[in-house]
Write a structure and sequence with these properties.
alpha+beta; Immunoglobulin-like; 3 domains; eleven-stranded mixed β-sheet; four-stranded antiparallel β-sheet; 10 helices; 24 strands; 22% helix
C-alpha cells in the first residue's frame, strides 16, 4: 500500500512540475543552421516562447531583446548588415539557448511556381556535369518539402537549409539554381535560395487573401477565401490561397530581395484574367515579405505544333500576352524563352538559359549593372508610314538582329536570314503573313495584301517557333500584338 502511494505521489509531483516548466524557445524552420540573411535591410528573427518570456538574439556584434507577447510570439529585427562570406553563429536565448551555425549574409530569393520551377537539376540538360560542378559553398538552399495546403495561413512549416554541393543540388529547382549561380558568380556574395513549388498548380492557390482583395476584378475569389477563413473546410491544390497558406506564409517575414516565378501552363487558356491574378500574387507577397520585393517571371516556352494561321491567338498566345502586360507592375521583369523550348515536351530541359535570363533582369534592375540590357526587345510603339508599319522597341541593347540559337550556345546573328512570324492587318481585321525588315532600332512590317495597315502581331501563337527577332546581346523579343481585337 505504501509503495502504491509513493508511486502516485511521485507521478503527481512530476505532473505538477511539468505543468510549471517553462516552454523552450522555438524557431521557424527557415531560421536555422546554414541560413543566409538578407543584406542591406533589417532582418527579422522570430519564434515562440512562454508569454512574457524575455528572448535575446545575438549575431555579428548585435544584441536585440524582446518579450514574447500574450500568445508566446516574439520577433526582433537585426539592423541592416553588409554581405559577409564568413560563417557566423547566431544565438537565441530565453529559457533555453538555441545556437545556429554557418550563418551568412548576402542575397535571398524565393523560387516558386509549378512544374517547370520544381524541375530539378538532376533532370535538366547536362545534368551529370552540372551536378558534379555544383560546389558552391556560398550558395545555400532551403527547400519546402512536399505539397502542402491549408484553409488558413499557417505560422509553421517544414524545411531546412543545405549548402549547395553535388550531394544537395540534384533535387533542387534547376531554374532557381542557375539563377542563383549567376548571381553568386557576378556579385561575389552569398546567395540564399528558397524553393517552394508544386507541379501542375494554377496561380490562384499561391495568392494570399490580401492579394485577392487588392484587385477589384478578383472580388469573387477574395470572398471565396474569406469564407474558408471563417468557416473552414476541405482544401486541395486547386483551392485559392490553399498553397500560399501552407507553403508561403510560414516563411514570413523572412527578409528577401525578390522572387522568381515560373508558372502559367495550368492557366494556359486565360488572357487578361491572368494579369489580374499575377498582380494579386505580387501585391500579396510584397505585403508579406517586402514592399519593394523584386519579382521576375518566365514567359511560357514554345510548345506543340506550330500553326500556319497568321491571326494566331491559339493556345497560350493570350496567356503570354498577359504575362507581357504584367510588366506594367513596378520592379518586375520577364524572361522570354520561346526559342529554347521543345514542341513535344512541356518541360524543356534547358533551364540554364532560363535562370540566366532571369538573373539578367536582377543584375540590371536590382544590382546596378547598367552595362547589361535586362531583356530582349519589348514592343513599345507603332507608327504607320504609307503602306508600312514601323515598330519601336525597348531593350534594343547593342542593336536588333535576325538571330539563331542552338542548345546552350549564345544566340548569333543569321546575316542571311529573314525575320519570321510577323503578321499584319488593316481595318478589315484580316491577318496576313508580313515581310519584316530591321531598320536601325526599328522593324518595318508590310504586305502587298494590306495596302493600309493598322496592326501587327508577332509570334502570337501557341508555338512561336520561327520568331527570330533578337537584340545583339543574344536575347529574343517577346511575342506581342498591337491590336485589342
Amino acid at each position: 500500500m505504501y509503495k502504491q502511494f509513493a508511486l502516485l505521489l511521485t507521478a503527481s509531483l512530476v505532473t505538477i512540475s511539468g505543468g510549471l516548466a517553462r516552454a523552450d524557445v522555438t524557431l521557424p524552420s527557415i531560421i536555422g543552421d546554414g541560413m543566409v540573411l538578407q543584406r542591406d535591410m533589417p532582418a527579422p528573427i522570430w519564434g515562440w516562447a512562454d508569454a512574457g518570456e524575455k528572448v535575446t538574439v545575438s549575431f555579428a556584434g548585435q544584441t536585440k531583446s524582446v518579450n514574447a507577447d500574450d500568445n508566446g510570439k516574439w520577433m526582433v529585427k537585426l539592423d541592416a548588415m553588409k554581405a559577409n562570406t564568413s560563417e557566423q553563429t547566431l544565438t537565441v536565448k530565453g529559457n533555453n539557448t538555441v545556437t545556429l551555425g554557418d550563418v551568412l549574409v548576402g542575397e535571398v530569393w524565393i523560387c516558386s511556381g509549378q512544374s517547370n520551377m520544381e524541375w530539378s537539376v538532376g533532370n535538366s540538360l547536362n545534368a551529370k556535369e552540372e551536378i558534379a560542378a555544383a560546389d558552391y559553398p556560398m550558395i545555400h538552399l532551403f527547400n519546402v518539402p512536399g505539397h502542402l495546403t491549408s484553409d488558413k495561413p499557417q505560422e509553421k512549416g517544414p524545411g531546412q537549409w543545405a549548402v549547395c554541393s553535388p550531394q544537395s543540388i540534384k533535387g533542387f529547382s534547376a531554374v532557381g539554381y542557375f539563377f542563383g549561380r549567376r548571381l553568386n558568380q557576378e556579385l561575389n556574395v552569398p546567395i540564399g535560395l528558397v524553393g517552394s513549388n508544386w507541379g501542375g498548380t494554377r496561380i490562384e492557390p499561391w495568392v494570399s487573401l490580401d492579394g485577392f482583395r487588392s484587385v477589384p476584378e478578383l472580388e469573387q475569389l477574395a470572398t471565396e477565401v474569406e469564407k474558408l477563413w471563417t468557416e473552414g473546410g476541405n482544401v486541395n491544390g486547386r483551392t485559392p490561397s490553399a498553397i500560399y497558406n501552407a507553403m508561403i506564409n510560414p516563411l514570413a517575414p523572412y527578409a528577401m530581395r525578390g522572387g522568381i516565378w515560373y508558372q502559367g501552363e495550368s492557366n494556359g487558356n486565360e488572357g487578361i484574367s491572368y494579369h489580374h491574378k499575377k498582380t494579386a500574387l505580387i501585391n500579396g507577397w510584397r505585403k508579406l515579405f517586402n514592399p519593394d520585393l523584386a519579382f521576375y517571371w518566365v514567359q511560357l516556352a514554345d510548345f506543340q505544333k506550330a500553326s500556319d494561321n497568321p491571326a494566331g491567338g491559339d493556345g497560350w498566345a493570350n496567356l503570354r500576352e498577359a504575362q507581357r502586360t504584367s510588366l506594367n507592375i513596378d520592379n518586375t521583369g520577364m524572361a522570354v524563352i520561346h526559342d529554347i523550348g521543345n514542341a513535344k515536351d512541356i518541360h524543356p530541359r534547358n533551364k540554364q538559359d532560363v535562370g540566366s535570363r532571369l538573373a539578367q533582369w536582377a543584375l540590371h534592375q536590382n544590382y546596378g549593372r547598367d552595362d547589361l540590357v535586362p531583356a530582349g526587345p519589348l514592343y513599345k510603339s507603332l507608327k504607320v508610314e504609307d503602306n508600312k508599319i514601323r515598330l519601336g522597341f525597348d531593350h534594343v541593347g547593342k542593336g536588333l538582329m535576325v538571330g539563331t540559337k542552338d542548345g546552350l550556345s549564345v544566340a548569333t546573328e543569321d546575316k542571311g536570314g529573314k525575320l519570321g512570324r510577323f503578321a499584319i492587318a488593316g481595318d478589315d481585321k484580316v491577318w496576313h503573313w508580313a515581310d519584316a525588315i530591321i531598320d536601325g532600332d526599328h522593324v518595318l512590317v508590310s504586305s502587298k495584301e494590306v495596302p493600309k495597315p493598322v496592326a501587327v502581331r508577332y509570334g502570337y501563337t501557341m508555338n512561336p517557333r520561327g520568331a527570330n527577332l533578337y537584340n545583339k546581346d543574344g536575347i529574343p523579343a517577346s511575342p506581342f500584338r498591337t491590336d485589342n481585337w
